[in-house]
Amino acid sequence: MFREVVLLFNDMMRENVRPNSYTFPMVIKSCVRLIALKEGELAHSLVLKFGFKSNSYVGSTLIDLYSSVGQVSCAYRVFSEMVLRNVVTWTSMINCYISHGDLVSARRLFELAPERDVVLWNTLLVGYIEHGYMMDARKLFDVMPDKDLISWNTMLNGYGNNMDMEGCEELFEELPQRNIFSWNGLIGGYAHNGRFIEVLDAFKKMLNKSNVQPNDATLVNVLSACARLGALDLGKWVHLYAEGNGYKDNIFVCNGLIDLYAKCGMIESAINVFSNMDRKDLISWNTIINGLAAHGHGADALKLFDEMKLAGEKPDAVTYIGILCACSHMGLVDDGFVYFQSMVDEHLIVPQIEHYGCIVDLLGRAGLLEQAVDFVDKMPLKADAVIWTTLLGACRVHKNVEFAELALQKLIQIDPKNPSNYVMLGNIYRGAKKWEDVARLKVAERDTGSKKLPGCSSIEVEDGVVEFYSFDERHSRSKEIYASLRGLMKVLQSCGYVPDLVELGQGI
User: Fold this and answer.
1) pLDDT by residue (tens digit) across 290-322?
2) Are 441 and 426 in contact (CB under 8 A)?
């Protein structure tokens, strides 16, 4: 209750009650949290008036005050005017420099500090890592006299966040001891770098080979990996584990479960988790709305959007991606444009490239290709490869060769080495029986010198996730895989499904 602190301090001054060295830190910290520079400066003047200019704790909070509003020179003036400085004061000033990207001044002051405790060492270590200077961080870490577990975990997270998983793995093996933050550093590093199979492997190792119990941050990373890999069985196990270990009502875990079930196509399970949540945040609403929209439940997504607004939750840019996606799946072209405009007019959200892409998809699905091209031409942002690929896909569905050729031209300008674009246009030519154009495109695709990456699938097998590629006969169980695939095709065909298998050179 920071505002009440400041108001109470004003009452105290009016009643002529003399403040002491414990009063000012509380008041100044409240000013920092309120970003109230004017009130903070008034407190500073009273600090001088009552003779606390050299008090180290008061001085540290004043440094934090000026740092919070970007007045580094004022912070340093407070620091330099203090007669007695302790390690906390030095740490505050060094942290001020780090917060504003001045690592040179921070290191210079660090070298001058008469006393350095582990907090001061860790402060500079974090500064190097947050600004991406991993080599400097490692050099500092290596000469630290008394590393604590926080130091080790800080370096571990640094490697993971700076895309060096080899360094992260090596340091993890060197750890003198491991706590939950150590395991989360490794698991989070894998997640941050898109190595989701390793996320699950590390999680299993944590459960089976350590006495450390996962927390909500661990479970969220694991659920995210399960969602990306389609590892539904393991995700269900995590759900049961969460319910049995006190995380049933944890909002972060629940959001992860909604995402898992939605991405795995189990919309009813996603809705059940959402409905049973006592407290919902913006991510909860966005995840379920986007999940419903992605799986064709557009009407339910729009209904939830209305409920969200009635609940007082303000939508953001992510919410509107789901809403526009819902309109696209339902063919609600006019409604889509109304929502797009309300995003700007009612909620002051500046449309991003993803929102423009949703409108292009909306028009393309509805067969309004000319209107879609016109919309792209008038966009304030330059269309990216996703938008032109979306348009190219719509051209294939509606067999429009003219706009397909335009989309391919744009895609060649953006990514000339990508053979997938030629494959899609080739399929359109085949559908239109333009065999000369098919042959010409095959030559053009070959001349790129690139090959289309084969399709890759993953599936849960015996408590693990296995990946296999299209036409890959090197897999140790390829005979079983293709036997299963042929069985699945027969089941699909028995239900009336006719596969659209079109080949173009080394394409699909």
Assistant:
1) 999 999 899 999 999 999 999 999 999 999 999
2) yes
